[in-house]
Amino acid sequence: MDPIEIGLWVSAGMMVMVILGMRVAFAAAMAGLVGLIWIFWAKKGMEWDQLGWALTVAIKTAGQVPHSKVSSQTLSLIPTFILIGFLAYYAGLTKALFEAAKRWIAWVPGGLAVSTVFATAGFAAVSGASVATAAVFARIAIPEMLKIGYNKQFAAGVVAAGGTLASLIPPSAILVIYAIIVEQDVGKLLLAGFIPGAFSAVVYAILIVGIAMIWKNVGPPVGGFTWRERFASLPAALPIVAVVVIIIFFVYNPFGDAWGTPTEGGAVGAFIVFCMAVFRGMRLAELKDALLETAKLTVMIFTIIWGVLIYVRFLGFADLPGAFADWISSLETSPMLILICILLAYAVLGMFMDAIGMLLLTLPVVYPAVMALNGGEMVSAADSAFGMSGPMCAIWFGILVVKMAEFCLITPPIGLNCFVVAGVRPDLSVQDVFRGVMPFFVADGVTIALLVAFPQIVLWLPSLAG
Amino acid sequence: MAGSSAVLEDSSLLSRLDRGLLKLETIFALVSGIAVFMLMVLAVWSVGGRKFFSTPLAGYVDWIEAAMPFIAIMGIAYTQRMGGHVRMDIVIGQLKGRALWAAELLSVVLILLLMLALTWGAWAHFDRSFDMTKPLWSRDSSIDIGLPIWPSKLVVPLAFGVICLRLVLQIWGYGRALVLGLERPVAVPLVQSAAEQAMAEAEHLDGRD
Amino acid sequence: ATDWNASVWGKRRAFTEHVEKIAELVSEKTDGEFTINVSYGGLSKNRENLDGISIGAFEMAQFCAGYHPDKNRAITVLELPFLGVSNLEEEVAVSKAVYDHPAVAEEMAQWNAKMLMTSPMPQYNLVGTGDPRTTLEDFDGMRVRATGGLGKAFEAVGAVPTSVTSSEAYNAMESGVVDTVAFAQHAHLSFGTINKADWWTANLNPGTVNCPVVVNIDAYDALSDEEREALDSSVDEALDHYLANYGELLKKWDSILEEKGVEKVEFSDDVIAEFKEKAADPAREAWIKEMEAQGIPGQELYDLVMETLEKERASN
Ligand code: NA
Ligand code: NA
């Protein structure tokens, strides 16, 4: 049997295991291991006396992957970002942010909802995880909105949608994972998420203001804060600014002075939040708790990473990604139409799968195909199908895919953010949240369409970085 | 996408073994968490040293790479105990009673086979980098400061060994549930609905903001 | 038919041309009976290519000695600073002599590997930002991206070797984490460090890295006589192709410097001699002592390099 055929069978087997509920990491690793055994055995003509050899070589090849692939400086960003998120709770950053946003911008129609969106965007600048962001703001923002007479479904929808911003605005664990899989510059990808993240927040805000102006009872403005009160709210939210500034400095040093790599920027950001948490009286037991939670989430993500990379190692031997890329670029259909189909396929897949698992499972095959579609990894903007160079296409596609994955956090049937918001608020059912979040589908649809139509929104910042 | 799940306890031998192993797993996971913390400290040291004292930390990358397997792998059994490795539960969530336990049992048996193989493979990876006759027992070293790599390679088969023990307990747990037709078996993570999970997540965040 | 996999990394570039060429030649000579499939990073991480050979996962691989000195102690002699190798032909000659030494063959055999050929690299000169550094005092406190023996050499004159991976070298330079980067010319081009540079050290020639191509012994032994002959006889041809190709690149180098406005820095003989004395001599002595202590004939290997260099020069 030829390697590509083996590749297809094994990939199909993996999807079956995943759908039937085997833990994603182990299903991928299992597929990779079985695939390696099969491919080595096929190389020896499937002779029975060669099966032992094939088993040994496959197991030793797969056994290298966990150590080999996790020993990476770039991947060390992931635990750091997760730690920042957990420490931020102890530092009380969420409440401080919401308070500041409220005092400064709640005077517009739909004021508290708009404040919530910008506060989640701000928190996104220290948190790498969407679900955690939604959970935190469900507890802080929804009660305040309900107190002044907001529609409760709408209030819940705002929080569920706002939570998705965490994965675009840096730091973002999911963007780091994308960068690793496709071997692109992490710094540029993180930078690229900034404007689309902020852009999404602005689109949400415009939508809210529009809704509040049409239906007066949805969300009245909140005024009456003096300038003194406004400025008084800033110091507590300051660490966020510090972290944002640090990350900007480390990713793209604006004044040409020596700072460091994005990896170091993440760690220094975490350290500042840690100091803040200690200052606010975090105890040792709480630190231990935060470290255990960080470990659990980190291990969960890394197990998928090395599990999938065993499968990817097998794909390397089977050369399936190459074959798929050749097939996609041989299609007569226009590249843009194929790209849109791929994005829609992600929207469907994302309804049923966890974002990180989904990206890790599909990117090894889909990414080379998209690059081939654009004209290859090294193509110049002039010769490309999408009007951008290979590296820029990698960044653009990454942001599109992550935005897609985030979109799926608020779509039925298992949009996790909605479940989390409903879980935090006993007075809200999941159906309530899904109903409230519906307008934001429109906003996200508009955002994604604009990002596809105007790639400059994504690429402007990273192109400045050289 | 199951995140965490509940594990029930009682006074049976299985449950006592479960809690005993949990202690070891917790220590491993804590090592992982502390390593993340050290990573942060190391970066601050490196940046500070370079920026303010013109004395960059030698071999910064080598140290990080050596620390990553501790961070990324040591907690693998703890996460399995807590049901923390993600999966799609859209199909398995529909199953009840013996059908559910049979499906879970099949899944953990497959994982145990996989992890036994990978424990061997990871051990072989360690073994190739280890040579008692060489200085520092090293037959593989890092790129900048020549750190021996075998200690961080050894972490992997160790952590994999612990998850193999955990999987044996889970096979026992699910097998017992299947044979006896139990409703709520001990020592195994129980499937939670998305709503239950969200509730657990929310409780976890209580008092943190 | 025999189907081999060759594990290299990165993208196809001057550094991998001999592997591509040997695959082409072997297939031609055996009428497609013996094929070598070159994989760029799909089969292994570059630092684990020797592991893959040892396991038997693939039959041919390229690696660099400095990536993991403890895996290949004997050939690190070729990465000692200021060996005096001045062109790629000499690099080929000294590598070949060292690869044929029994101590090297024995160490490689522990990995089930047999040396096939080297990937000759020119001297790793620096590109830097800011004012050109022209004296040894200027090197004091310089943050330089240089690995292995080269890093140690710069350390000996007060510079600070700062580790970043080759793919992060550009970013590190841009963000000021390092102010100089040591690479061969093709790497300065492919990693973009030349685009950030203000100057280039044209004649410092502090040393280079050594990156052999090896084959798995079992697979090599399992070849038919005809296939083995096809492989062995293609080595020189593949290397010639490599040298010609790299020569083209070096010819263009000066015009690239001019185009990017990069200043060529020439060091005086005195400065180079002083650098050598401070960096090369102690490094060599330490290396020989360390190798001898482990039962590797360090002195003999070093002498072999020097003799081969002399012979090579005499013959030209
Ligand atoms: Na974020
Ligand atoms: Na609820």
Automatic annotation (TrEMBL), chain A:
The keyword Cell membrane applies. It is a multi-pass membrane protein. Residues 13-457 form the TRAP C4-dicarboxylate transport system permease DctM subunit domain. It comes from the Bacteria. The chain crosses the membrane at residues 12-41, 74-92, 112-142, 154-181, 193-215, 236-255, 267-285, 297-315, 327-349, 394-424, 436-461. The keyword Cell inner membrane applies. It is found in: Cell inner membrane. Its main location: membrane. GO terms for molecular function: transmembrane transporter activity. Keywords: Cell inner membrane, Cell membrane, Membrane, Transmembrane, Transmembrane helix, Transport. GO terms for cellular component: plasma membrane. PANTHER family: C4-DICARBOXYLATE TRAP TRANSPORTER LARGE PERMEASE PROTEIN DCTM, SIALIC ACID TRAP TRANSPORTER PERMEASE PROTEIN SIAT-RELATED. Part of the tripartite ATP-independent periplasmic (TRAP) transport system. This is TRAP transporter, DctM subunit. It comes from Sulfitobacter delicatus.
TrEMBL record, chain B:
It is a multi-pass membrane protein. This is TRAP transporter small permease protein. It is found in: Cell inner membrane. PANTHER family: 2,3-DIKETO-L-GULONATE TRAP TRANSPORTER SMALL PERMEASE PROTEIN YIAM. Keywords: Cell inner membrane, Cell membrane, Membrane, Transmembrane, Transmembrane helix, Transport. Belongs to the TRAP transporter small permease family. The chain crosses the membrane at residues 21-45, 57-78, 99-123, 154-174. Residues 39-172 form the Tripartite ATP-independent periplasmic transporters DctQ component domain. It comes from the Bacteria. The keyword Secreted does not apply. Its main location: membrane. GO terms for molecular function: transmembrane transporter activity. The complex comprises the extracytoplasmic solute receptor protein and the two transmembrane proteins. GO terms for cellular component: plasma membrane. Part of the tripartite ATP-independent periplasmic (TRAP) transport system.
